[in-house]
Amino acid sequence: YRNHFKMDPTMPPQEAALGALREGVRAGATLAPPVFLWYHHAGYKEVWDRFLRDPNAPRKISSYAEEAISKGWLKGFERPARDITPKALLVSGSNPLRRHRGGMNTYFKTLWPKLELIVVLDPRWSTTGLLADYVLPAASFYEYADAKYSTPATRFSTFTDQTVPMVGESRTDRQITLGILRHVQAELKKRGIEKYHNGDKEIIVDELYWRATFGDRYGETNEDEERLVSDTYRALGQMGWFESLDGEELNLDNLRKNGKAWLSGRPGWHATVVQNADIVPGEAFWPFRDQIEQKVPYATTTRRIELYLDHPWFIEADEHLVRYKQPPNIGGSQPLRLTSGHLRWSIHSNWVVAQEMLKLHRGEPFAFINNRVAKDKGIADNDYIRVFNDYGEFIVRAKLSACIRPDQLVIYHAWEPYQYPNWMPYDALLPGPPKGLHFAGGYRHYEYTLWNWSPSQSDRQTNISFERAELQK
């Protein structure tokens, strides 16, 4: 953060930290926003322009995206670039054919034919895995020692230990990735390739595996995994970002005894930096203590809480001041709105097809519809219905309820596409347009960084209709 403070001594810690993180993303050190994969290569540019009908939007989404690119607001984040056609897809910790709006409609139909190789790391058979070339068996929860992602919401970093052996040939994600990297490095050297470029960054082939293993310190064994967890916690404890529950040194033995560690101070990842407050172990946590107690300026253009956005795009769109606007017509002019619930009990889609979970309900996807509307349409409980709009359609069981509005259909997320007839889930009628204004830049606190100000797909309030469906046996 020091370089940013030198540039502007009035800069709040949050802004300095996000600026440093932004430079790391731009240099290729971490993830880039996925929006340009969707926009340039997966067919969404045309879909978003066609199926977002917003009378309040002065322009199409592509107009915003192209202007942002031309002005350099997203320089270094436009990956893969327009002129680079992706040939391979490595999926780890995700399931894009389920997660992406329009996943089986646009993403699969447009991107999949361009790819020469699709590899999935997963402990289970996801829809993406079933439609991949290779599935590498990743170890599941409690099959290896691991540290879970921490946020101020819990104030803890939770440790999960190995309680059962890994199944078959499964390995941890890190072990699999290192194995792939080791073979890629060998193949590059075999072809006489000594270095290559990732954006502006030069990559030395001989250093690939060495860097990924922290100088050959943490290899591919289970013992290496445990040593990495122990050393990471110890280092974070010495930095003051974690504290043990009992005041003793924080390491693997301590975690196995206590199960978790306190977050402390202001750990340098996004979820804690943006809170503008230190975390004090054992005390209640609330954000913006910097501004309330120490009068630190806010990380905005004016250094105050901003209600007026003096950005030309927001002024043009009449959104420089917050006010209500009628939701846009997404997907068409159908009379009903699709809304969604959140599958917590299955932990998203992790256990959505587990037999134990399927026995808790009807065992397949279903949508809630109003009971009176169903009667008018000749739909009985558990009938199949066809849900559709101008963009797509899917078939699902109907669950009748008096709690649902007559102009509403509710379906919970996370069902796997292969659980639906024809493998078409409810995402098939969600074009998922981002908000065009979210491509804005050149304005102090409207600059992309990791998990911050990224154009993302939207799905709520999509317009739909439905009718009784007769399935062909």
* Rg from alpha-carbon coordinates: 25 Å
> Beta-strand percentage?
15-25%
Helices and strands: which structural class?
A: alpha+beta
Reported CATH architecture of the domain at 329-468: Beta Barrel
The CATH class of the domain at 329-468 is identified as Mainly Beta
Into which percent range does the helicity of residues fall? 25-40%
Poorly predicted residue ranges: none
Distance between the termini: 63 Å
Order of strands, widest sheet: 12-16-13-15-14-17
Give the mean pLDDT: 92
**Shape label:** globular
Q: What is the fold-level CATH name, i.e. the topology of the domain at 329-468?
A: Barwin-like endoglucanases
Number of strands: 17
Describe this structure as you would to a colleague.
The protein is 28% helix and 16% strand. By secondary structure, the protein is an alpha+beta fold. Among the domains are: 153-165 and 222-286, no CATH class; 329-468, Barwin-like endoglucanases (Beta Barrel), CATH 2.40.40.20. A six-stranded mixed barrel has the order 12-16-13-15-14-17. The longest helix is centred in the middle third of the chain and has 18 residues, at 173-190. The protein is globular and about 65 Å long.
